[in-house]
Amino acid sequence: MTASIEFYFDFASPYGYLASERIERIAEQHGRSVIWRPFLVGAAMKVSERKPLAWVPLVGDYAAHDVKRFARYWDIPFVIPSHWPVATVNACRAFYLLEETDHVAARHFAQALYRAYFRDDRDISDRETVVAVASELGHDPTHIAEGIQTDRIKQTLRSVNDEALDRGVFGSPFIIVDSESFWGADRLQQVDQWLSRGGW
Amino acid sequence: MTASIEFYFDFASPYGYLASERIERIAEQHGRSVIWRPFLVGAAMKVSERKPLAWVPLVGDYAAHDVKRFARYWDIPFVIPSHWPVATVNACRAFYLLEETDHVAARHFAQALYRAYFRDDRDISDRETVVAVASELGHDPTHIAEGIQTDRIKQTLRSVNDEALDRGVFGSPFIIVDSESFWGADRLQQVDQWLSRGGW
User: Fold this and answer.
1) What domains does chain B contain, in order, with CATH numbers?
2) Has residue B80 got a pLDDT over 80?
């Protein structure tokens, strides 16, 4: 039996979105499954004294251009969101609520949230939007709206964030394959090769 | 006639070294030439308030692992230099001195300097080492040692650095193809595609 690929990402991360559109296909080709791990990258950014690329002088303009070009390169619909920065705590909590009972449904929800934000320019920081996206997938809106307020789900997300930091997950996307860490959508090709060759 | 590819890099940059081992082959495949532009990335790092990856908490350890893995991925000999950080001002000046008369010789010298640093672990901040590397390629050591001290060559390097900053070149490697900028060794595949398809 081969281990799953762990896919850490922040819902506000455009490169995380690009990776999210590719990672399942790569995993499938190698008979692997993917564990989706939305988290809040903010704590790691703080520890590593970094800020979002968009706020870095010189780099910000380049990054905006690069991510749009990268999306076209992979033929993935993409817009620079008008709502930015966004808090993704509600999005993450709703994911872990759904994951308690159905991890495939949770994954479809994560993909839908990412597309809501980076294709349809919806404000996923807004709790109503998060609930609406879940509802559009057939989930009970009341269950989501109430579930994400529970201490249990809040604690789940805190644990995921703590574990990410403990494991040295400092960016988004961040992919762990057989204890090997890869940071960035631009490392997916190496992830693919690593899976093919079992390392190099 | 097709324009040359501009290849900006800092001699202290390991990802610049990796790119330097691939870029000529990519350019040749598309009938392009490469203009090598060693520069001092420090000024741009200052403007963009960044520091070398190795000094960034959490990221530093990952980056050291990533660059070694990346080198193996491309089958390029690589060691983490024991002399680091290094000032690369003498290396750059010697490059531009040679380039005044022979840009192919200057390119071979740049490749030799990069290999001296990232394969053979020599201290390329040292003026004697820079002169020795040139001498090993058949250049007159006295010409190099004296030439890099001239105001003319110092001014050449200052102009290159100023121009890089003016053009938004903020990292290493940084590749400009037909006014399109690509940052990072991990963008070489996109550079290759851009040259194939004339953009996308």
Assistant:
1) 5-197 (3.40.30.10)
2) yes
Q: What letter represents residue A123's amino acid? A: D
**Using alpha carbons only, how large is chain A's radius of gyration in Å?**
16
Contact residues, chain A to chain B, C-beta under 8 Å: 44, 47-50, 56-59, 61-62, 65-66, 69-70, 72-73, 168, 170-171, 180-184, 186-187, 189-190, 193, 200
A41/A195 Cα distance (integer angstroms): 26
pLDDT for the residue numbered A52: 87
A74 has a pLDDT exceeding 70: yes
What average pLDDT does range B151-175 have in this prediction? 97
| Chain B residues lying within 8 Å of A183, measured CB to CB | 62, 66
**ipTM for the whole predicted complex goes beyond 0.90:** yes
- Can the peptide bond before residue A85 be classed as cis, meaning omega within 30 degrees of 0? yes
Q: What is the DSSP letter of A53?
A: G
Concatenate the DSSP letters of all residues of A159-197 into one string: HHHHHHHHTT--SSSEEEETTEEEESGGGHHHHHHHHHH
Question: Residues for chain A: how many in total?
Answer: 200
Band (B48; pLDDT cuts 50, 70, 90): confident
Residue for token digits 């963009």? Answer: B48
Q: Tell me the C-alpha distance between B180 and B195, whole Å.
A: 11
